[in-house]
Amino acid sequence: MVLILVGVTVIVFSIMMLLPPGQRVSVYVQDERVNNQQLEALIEKYGLDDPAPVQYWRWIKGVFRGDFGYSVVAVTPVIEAFKNYFPVTLELVLIATPLIIMTGVWLGTKAATNKDTAIDHGTRIFAIVGYSLPTFWLGLMLLMVFYGLFGLFPPGVLSNEGRDVLYSGDFQRYTRLLLIDSILNWRWDMFWDALYHLILPAFNLVLLSSAMILRLTRSSMLDSLGQDYIRTALAKGASKNLIERKHARRNALIPVITVSGLLFAGLMAGMVITETIFNRPGIGLWMADAALRLDVSAIMFNVLFLSGVYVVMNLVVDVLYAYVDPRIRLS
Fold first, then answer.
1. At what angle do helices 283-292 and 249-269 cross, to 10 degrees?
2. What is the pLDDT confidence band of residue 195, given thresholds at 50, 70 and 90?
């Protein structure tokens, strides 16, 4: 894990070094009256013309001290910006991911156990359509129908009244996750307000991402149902429900676990479109703005953080393998 993260930082830092020092320092200069001599002085002050290994080592030392630089987009230190953006993304991911996995596994199981029936054909059509739809198109359609026509599920994080409560000073931010903090503050009006604004983006992600889990579950279940141990269990008189739930589905979960772990990491890294459409200021929106404005410090931090998420999720997936499949545990 450590070697992977170090390798990622070296690669990304090398790409950042392709930008000339003048372009990197100009991002942090807001005054248009700054001349070339002043820019050269800033480059020398921050060591942007030093050799690449020297700059990399300086950045790594800052990382170990918790100093990730300054984010131009957020107009605040990177770590402070992360504390503001991260909970918005995490809250949506924690709501959407279990729904995606449960929906995909349930529909995939139904399709496999009812092979070549109307249920199977219907779920396969849903999977193909869901997997093919562009994220931005479906998000816009959902907004037009639910919010545009019926005035339901508005974009954003909170209503105007909820934002007034949030910034009034009486609302304590224990975790910065609105749903949890609302419960801890005994503000159920804030809880329902935050949940109300989460429904449409979560629904958008479930429709799109559960299609992949559905197809994978169906394929794995069909493979498991054709194995000899299933026929043995049927011959011994085991019920169909027990065979499907305990024998076939559990053995079919190995590839599903792999994809689910990567799905969680991918949602943490790739919700730029969803957060933009539904006006949720999360990590995806921050990364998009940072890339457009060449916010080097924010880009470096986000790449490092998201690489860590992927590495940790791969570790979690490996542990879950052993939990689900005793053969892996015994080996």
1. 40
2. very high
Please report which helix (H) or strand (E) contains residue 5, including its range. Answer: helix 2-16
Q: For 259-318, what is each residue's pLDDT tens digit?
A: 888 888 888 876 788 888 898 888 888 888 888 888 888 888 888 888 888 888 888 888
The tokens for 34 are 């700054």
Taking a C-beta distance cutoff of 8 angstroms, is the pair 303, 225 a contact?
Answer: no
H helices of 17-153, in order, are: 21-26, 36-45, 52-64, 78-113, 118-132, 135-142
Banded pLDDT at 180 (limits 50, 70, 90):
very high
In this structure, are residues 204 and 134 in contact, taking their beta carbons and an 8 Å threshold?
Answer: no
Query: Using CA atoms, how far apart are residues 77 and 80, in angstroms rounded to an integer?
Result: 5
H/E stretch holding 14 reads helix 2-16
Residue 120 CB-density burial (10 A; 0-12 exposed, 13-18 middle, 19+ buried): middle
- State yes or no: pLDDT of 32 exceeds 60: no
CA angle in degrees (0–180, nearest 5) for 147-99-252:
145
CB 142 within 8 A of CB 204: yes
Q: What is the mean pLDDT of the chain?
A: 84
Please, is 18 exposed, middle or buried when counting C-beta atoms within 10 Å of its C-beta (0-12, 13-18, 19+)?
exposed
8 A C-beta contact, residue 28 and residue 70: yes
Residue 163, number of CB atoms within 10 A of its CB:
13
Q: Which two tokens stand for residue 132?
A: 């093919």
Would the pLDDT of 232 be above 60? yes
Amino acid at 277: I
Buried b (16+ CB within 10 A) or exposed e, 264-283: bbbbbbebbbbbbbbebbbb
Residues in Cβ contact with 177 at an 8 Å cutoff, skipping those fewer than 6 apart:
87, 90, 91
